[in-house]
Amino acid sequence: MRIYKRWWQLKIKEMECIICDNENHSKSVEHIVSESLGNENYVMVKGGVCDKCNHKFSNFEGKALSNSILLVERARMGISSKKGKNAKGEIQGLKIEGDKNLKKNHITITGLSPENSKNYNPVTKTFQVKVESFDKSQVATSKLLLKMAIESIYTSQNKLFKKLDFEELKEFLKGDNNKNWPFLTSKYDDGGFKSIPRFTDKHRLKKINCELKYKQVDDRTLLFTFKYGGVKMIINLLNRDLLWVNKYLNEDTKSRLYPKHFRAKLERRLKK
Question: Which end of the chain is more exposed for a tag (fewer CB within 10 A), N or C?
């Protein structure tokens, strides 16, 4: 008796990009937190983000890392770029560079003026330097925050990813809606935040002084905090509403709302 075997060819459906929802054939590895912030291991599954969206990410990621306070923290902590070079960039005329041997707490700053340096001590030969947090990189930074948030939630809190509506966030990252998205710099912690990465991922990120946390306040407010070195930023992932920022501004006088035009908008709203 002859036995016939039938072989079935199975067509495996490609993954869909979590940003544009298009079928994704990319096999590149997407780092959730940039390699230029010291992250080597916290990555998305291959095919999670398509090449087209990844290219858009590269455009704003570079600006956020080289023209904002994140540059100072990278240089201060001796973090190298993707190519293994010391951190370099510029913030409002100040050229900032980390130590070439990646030595911590050694930064070179050129372009100083009386406006951004003060309190010189002739004995210790030290003085204070004022560096603005952002140099035309506020929008790029808000996009970087949203990018890290949605990728980390998809990877480590997938039930939350499936539960909530992130369409407005996706439209902003794709460039379909370019209306600015507000975020805060603040050291205030009102509690209730949970780590997005778990176990080994969480531990490895802490080694580079990085934390990603979330807190769901209500159906319209999912707060995401990104802490890197001495900087902490907070953003609402579900919409551009400003109501959530009041508590932080009231509790921490050093909290700052960005992009700056949102400050006037918030003041007008509070006067009504």
Answer: N
Secondary structure (DSSP) of 162-216: HHS--HHHHHHHHTS------EEE-----S--EESS-HHHHHHHHHTTEEEEEEE
CA 1: distance to chain centroid?
66
Q: What is the pLDDT of residues 235-262, one digit of tens each?
A: 999 999 998 999 999 999 999 999 999 9
Q: The tokens 């009504």 sit on which residue? A: 272
- 65 contacts: CB under 8 Å, gap ≥ 6: 34, 36, 37, 71, 74, 89, 144
For residue 169, give both structure tokens. Answer: 């966030």
DSSP string, 15-51: PBPTTT--B-------BSS-GGGT-SS-BPPTTSS-H
**Residue 251 corresponds to which amino acid?**
E
Q: What is the pLDDT of residue 160?
A: 96
C-alpha angle 82-146-208 in degrees, rounded to nearest 5: 40
Residues 100-130 pLDDT 10s: 999 999 999 999 888 888 887 888 878 788 8
